[in-house]
Amino acid sequence: MIQKIKDTFFGFAVGDALGVPVEFRSREDIAKNPVTDMREFGTHHQPKGTWSDDSSLAFCLAESLATPINSTKKAIYDINDIANNFVKWKYENFWTPHGRVFDIGIATTDAIKRLKKGENPLLAGGIDEYSNGNGSLMRILPLIFYKGYLFEDSIKRRFELVSEVSSITHMHFRSVFSCFIYTEFARILLEQTQKKEKQDKFLAYQKLQVLITDFATEFDFNKTEITLFDRILKNNITTFEEETIKSSGYVLHTLEASFWCFMKYDSYSESVLKSVNLGEDTDTTGCVTGGIAGLFYGMNTENNEKGIPKEWLEVIVKKEDVNNLCERLYDLNF
């Protein structure tokens, strides 16, 4: 399990870092000089291997899940502690790559300002339809390695956990449900490894579609909202043409793009490079795709040419800190 944690964390950090230099550039513009390797400078003028707010906030979540309370050496879930880490990130540069925040979304900014003023974390996130950016989806993945989520048999309780963590910044059902589809897909892929089954992303995808559809029906969620997820839940996402796959900061676009890139391509590098070359919100699409692709393909070795390339891992900022975080998270939860 420790290796899967590292595969996942470095997977999203590498995808994020690949996207940082070309963030906000259009698909057409990037197509003139496609991203094929780690770059430096660009949009945010950052050194090679620099991850953004996406990974920072994911690490903040993981930090809370990897920190015992009162030296009990037991994993805890404390929504206030998670929220406090987000505040520390924005105002004290906690878990930033180079000691300062250089990128942050509007909804996340507003929510963290409310948190700093003492708002209840479960009520801090935006609730209206226009507060459905990808700011909670980009940071949710570490939750799957919290034992209270991974080993929880009740899908209702797993949904509640995802809803709480998303709601710190994004409270609308659409954002929460996007996060839940993503974490459940990751959990199913991880379950294949735990049960020593053959890793099959297509079988996992089919299982996810049935699981989520049945769950939505059982709890009678808003049908209008659920219908928005039909391209993922009722279709094979890979059958859609590239021009129909959007890559803006809208949560549903990011979810669809990450599923499309991961399911359509056959290695970590192919999936993540495609996600970045879709343009616009490149760091987040790269991060979300990279997390699931890292979990599935692992790291590149002599016996695994489909994994995360070593040359990309070598330039990742604060890689020793990330490695240490993974080990602490494992020690506390497994």
From TrEMBL:
UniProt entry tagged with the keyword Repeat: no
Cofactors that this protein relies on: Mg(2+)
Chain ranges passing through the membrane: none
Keywords: Hydrolase, Magnesium, Metal-binding
Pfam families in UniProt: ADP_ribosyl_GH
Amino acids binding Mg(2+): 52-54, 281, 283-284
Textual note on the cofactor: Binds 2 magnesium ions per subunit.
One term of GO molecular function: hydrolase activity
Coiled-coil segments: none
Family: Belongs to the ADP-ribosylglycohydrolase family.
Protein name per the record: ADP-ribosylglycohydrolase
Source species of the chain: Bernardetia litoralis (strain ATCC 23117 / DSM 6794 / NBRC 15988 / NCIMB 1366 / Fx l1 / Sio-4)
